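Help needed: design a sequence for this.
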């Protein structure tokens, strides 16, 4: 029996299957989120950002400025919505600013 399937698949489907079979999607999401955070929040916030990490459905962001951290706390829901929209999926339900 041949290892190939009879029906052709799109590259998108093949990549999606590869990501799920090799369990690398969370790692890719972490990389995307780091870049997306910098893009959406701008250079002013990025200058004070030490780390961005997704653990399960919670995004942990380490901010070195306590004043900026408090300001960002007021807009958590908007930040979550923007990041989920940028990822094109709802993988963040909670944002923890440290």
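Sure. Designed sequence:
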């Amino acid at each position: 029996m041949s290892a190939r399937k009879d029906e052709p698949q799109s590259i998108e489907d093949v990549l999606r299957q590869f990501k799920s079979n090799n369990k690398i999607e969370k790692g890719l999401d972490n990389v995307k989120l780091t870049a997306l955070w910098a893009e959406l929040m701008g250079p002013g916030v990025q200058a004070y950002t030490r780390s961005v990490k997704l653990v399960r459905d919670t995004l942990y962001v380490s901010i070195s400025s306590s004043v900026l951290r408090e300001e960002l706390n007021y807009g958590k829901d908007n930040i979550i919505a923007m990041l989920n929209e940028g990822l094109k999926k709802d993988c963040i339900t909670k944002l923890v600013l440290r």
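The two ends are 55 Å apart (CA to CA).
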